[in-house]
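FIELD: query
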Amino acid sequence: MTALTTTAAPAAPRALARQRRRTALLSAAVTALIVVLTAVGLGTGEVPIAPLDALRGLVGLGDPGSVMLVQELRAPRVLSALAAGAGLAVAGALLQRVARNPLASPDVVGVTGGASLGAVVAIATGASAALTPLAALLGGLLAAVLLGALAWRGGFTVSRLVLVGIAVQSGLAAAVNLFIVRFPRELASTALQWTTGSLYGRTWTEFGAGGAAVLAGIALALVCHRRLAVLDLGDDTAGALGLAPKAARLQLLLLAVVLASVAAALTGPIGFVALVVPHIVRFLAGPHTMGTLALTALTGAALLLGADLVVLHLLPVHGLPVGVATATLGAPWLLVLMLRQMKPNAGSTAR
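FIELD: result
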C-alpha cells in the first residue's frame, strides 16, 4: 500500500504538467489560426489584398486605399466575429459548469433569445445603433430572470432548466417574429438579421461597446475561475471551504448572461457555438483549468470567424447568415448530447 501511494503521489503533478503543456500548445496553435483567418478575412473580397498588407492595414500602415478598405469595411465584421465567438464560448462553458449539464448553453436556455428580442425592439423602434448592445443586455437579463423564476419553482433540477429554457427560447422567438411583422418594412428587414445570426453591416460603433464588454467579461471569468473549481467539488465541500455556493453560482450565471447577451448584440442569436466549443476544448485539452477556459475563448473566436468566412467565400449561396452554418455544425452535436443524457447511467439530474 505504501509503495502504491508513493508511486501515485507524483503522478498527479506530472499529469497536470502534461495538461498545461498540451493546453499551451493548443492555445498557440489556435492563436496562429486566428491570425491567419483574420488576414484572410481582411484581405478577401471584391478587391483582394495580400494577407500581410491586410494585417498592416488593420493598424493603419500601407496604401491609404487598402487601409480605408480594411479599417472601414472589413475590420468591424472580422473583429465582431472574434469577440462574439469568444464571448459565446466562455458563456457556454460557465453555464455548463454551474448547471452541471452539458446541454446548458445560452442559445438552448433562452438567454440569446431574450438578447435578440431586446436588440430587435431597439432596432424596430428606430433607436440609435449605440443603444443596441444595452437593449440586448437588458433582454438577456429579462430572459434569465424569467428562466430562473420558472426553473426554480418547485425545486431546481438540471433537466427542468433545459426544458424550461427551450420553452422560453421558443416564446421569445415568437415575440421577435411578432415585432418583425408589425413594424415598418425598412426597420423589420434590419431586425430580421437578428433572428438568424448575421455579421453583415457591423460597424465600429457596435464593436466598440460590445467588444470591450466581452473582453472585460472574459477577463472576469478567468479571475473567477477558482470559484468555479470550488463549485465543481459540490455544494457541501464548497461551503466547507468558505464559499457561499448559491451566491457564487448566481454571480457566475449573471456573468454568463452578460457575455451571451453582448455577443448576441454583435451578431444576433448565433446558435451552437456556446454549446459545442466547451466540449471540443475538453476533448482536446482535458479537465477544466484556467488555461482551458482561455483556450475556450480562443476556439470560439476561431470557430465563428471561420464559419463566417465559409459563408462569405466558399458557399454558392450569397448572403447566407453565419448562424445557418453554425447551426448545421451544432445540431448533430446537440442530438448526440441529448441521447447521452437519456441513458440510464448518464447520472442524476437532480441537485
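FIELD: remark
Residues 64-99 form the longest helix (36 residues).
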